[in-house]
Specification:
Distance between the termini: 59 Å
CATH architecture of the largest domain: 4-Layer Sandwich
Structural class: alpha/beta
Number of strands: 30
Shape: globular
Number of helices: 15
Oligomer: single chain
Strand content: 25-35%
CATH topology of the largest domain: Purple Acid Phosphatase, chain A, domain 2
Largest sheet: 6 strands, mixed
CATH class of the largest domain: Alpha Beta
Strand order of the largest sheet: 6-5-4-1-16-17
Radius of gyration: 23 Å
CATH superfamily of the largest domain: Metallo-dependent phosphatases
């Protein structure tokens, strides 16, 4: 028996319904057909291949949302992943529906730290043992605490609150299910790159964890980052690339003797199309096209939303639409609820729905200037620049200048006047942010309720956006300095 054995590990994360190919500088790139083609080609060249998905298969595509993930599961089934873990968006259609989708999956879904609070029973199998090229591989699934935000109203569902608890759970599983026969231990996480780094640092080396395959923060790591002896990888998001590790393991001493890593572009030069999968995709696309391919408006130009942790053109447009002719002063539009990096100039109905797939009601609250200052200071804390917190787009009239180095507001104005502590402002938030007010905004909701009873002022964000856009042509928006970060 050879002492060293080699396998290929392919991994994706945060696919988010990115099923269709796109033109990138004249090259057809991405899409689930070419992703499948690359997987099939690699498996044909090397049968000792493992394919892992690190969460968030759902959301981002009208093909996904129209069928509440059933279309996604059928398409992902055709990729034949060896294992996947749960991401925070896997629960967007409800935990009960997720458990139904799991039954439709023809691949194992693992998660170690999502459980029923009444009896502490896990919802999913926490780990799986696989054998590839004779190597015994233990894979463990770990989920972000953000799932609590989505399942806030499902009191019987919980997850471990922090990375320290997750690290302890990894230890429990390794102590019970990692044996002398285990050659390789891999965590498949959906907690974001910074939390992966923290988790790796907390792991006892005796757990024997070798690799963390991560997701959630959409981080594109060109090479593994090693922390506490654990290699961390993540492959951005969508289907325009895939992570590839060629790993050689010493089966006697149970360690990785060599690893070659690359981010492989998925395009017409690297990946053939999977025409069988395309037939299934076209069935779904044909149905959604008939229903959703109609023009809503034409913008003056293409507007961008390149990064959620900054003021953006699309963010300003959406926040202003929500605030116009409203009964409140300032709209705080969730940056993360805007899913596309650009919009227009032609905006179809499906573009609108894919750009803001998390349609929900809007709440109005009244805050003092002092409370608003605390909220903004909380939003702009250091963690914001790591992509691990909620961020917001502000409607017109707001002027915020924040010093990162000094951790203070240099300017804090509304309609040209300084926001004083005793000022009263009516603000509006999407329901997701209202339900998680304390965590996302750093001020107790119960404290804010003393100013005025919060109330729903609109039942649908998308209803407002569609109506306004359809009745206004050639709209434009610019980054105006509503939120400026210095230092």
């Amino acid at each position: 028996m050879p002492v060293e054995k080699t396998i290929t590990i392919l991994h994706s994360n945060d696919i988010h319904g990115d099923f269709l190919a796109k033109d990138v500088e004249g090259v057809e790139s991405g899409g689930i057909s070419r992703l499948s083609g690359y997987l099939r080609k690699t498996r044909a060249e090397n049968p000792n291949t493992l394919y892992v998905i690190a969460g968030d298969m759902f959301r981002g595509s009208i093909i996904d949302s129209e069928y509440k993930g059933l279309s996604t599961i059928e398409l992902i089934n055709m990729l034949q992943p060896d294992v996947a873990t749960i991401g925070n968006h896997e629960v967007d259609y409800g935990v009960a529906h997720l458990l139904f989708l799991e039954k439709c999956a023809r691949f194992p879904i693992i998660n170690a730290n999502m459980f029923i609070t009444t009896n502490n029973s896990r919802l999913f199998t926490p780990y799986i043992n696989l054998t590839v090229n004779g190597l015994k591989i233990l894979l463990i699934g770990i989920l972000t605490q953000e799932v609590l935000a989505t399942t806030r109203q499902e009191s019987v569902i919980g997850t471990f609150l922090d990375v320290e608890e997750a690290a302890k759970e990894v230890g429990i599983i390794c102590d019970n299910y990692r044996t002398t026969a285990t050659d390789l231990t891999i965590l498949v996480t959906h907690i974001g790159y910074e939390k992966d780094v923290e988790l790796a640092g907390l792991l006892d080396p005796d757990y024997g964890v070798d690799i963390i395959i991560g997701g959630h923060s959409h981080t594109l790591l060109p090479q593994p980052v090693t922390v506490n002896g654990v290699r961390i990888v993540q492959a951005g998001s969508g289907t325009t690339q895939i992570g590839r590790m060629d790993v050689t393991v010493n089966t006697i001493k149970k360690y990785i003797s060599s690893i070659t890593y690359s981010i492989v572009p998925i395009n017409e030069n690297t990946s053939p199309r999977d025409t069988v999968l395309e037939e299934t995709l076209e069935l779904y696309k044909g149905e959604t096209d008939k229903k959703y391919r109609r023009i809503v408006t034409r913008l003056a130009r293409t507007l961008t939303h390149p990064c959620r942790e900054q003021e953006t053109e699309v963010g300003n447009l959406y926040a202003d639409i929500m605030q116009e002719d409203s009964s409140f002063d300032i709209m705080l539009f969730g940056s993360g609820s805007i899913r596309k990096q650009q919009l227009g100039p032609i905006v179809e109905y499906q573009d609108l729905l894919e750009n803001t797939p998390f349609d929900d009601p809007v709440y109005m609250l009244e805050v003092t200037g002092e409370q608003f200052r605390r909220m903004v200071t909380h939003i702009l804390r250091d963690e914001a620049w790591q992509g691990d917190t909620e961020f917001y787009q502000f409607s017109r009239g707001v002027r915020i200048v924040w010093s990162k180095s000094r951790h203070e507001l240099l300017e804090f104005k509304f309609r040209g006047e300084d926001i004083t502590d005793d000022m009263r402002l009516k603000i509006a938030l999407q329901t997701y942010h209202y339900k998680n007010f304390d965590e996302f905004l750093g001020v107790p909701l119960e404290e804010v309720k003393q100013n005025m009873k919060p109330r729903v002022i609109a039942t649908s964000v998308n209803n407002i956006l569609e109506e306004y856009l359809s009745t206004h042509m050639n709209l434009d928006a610019h980054v105006e300095g509503r939120l400026v970060v210095v230092d």
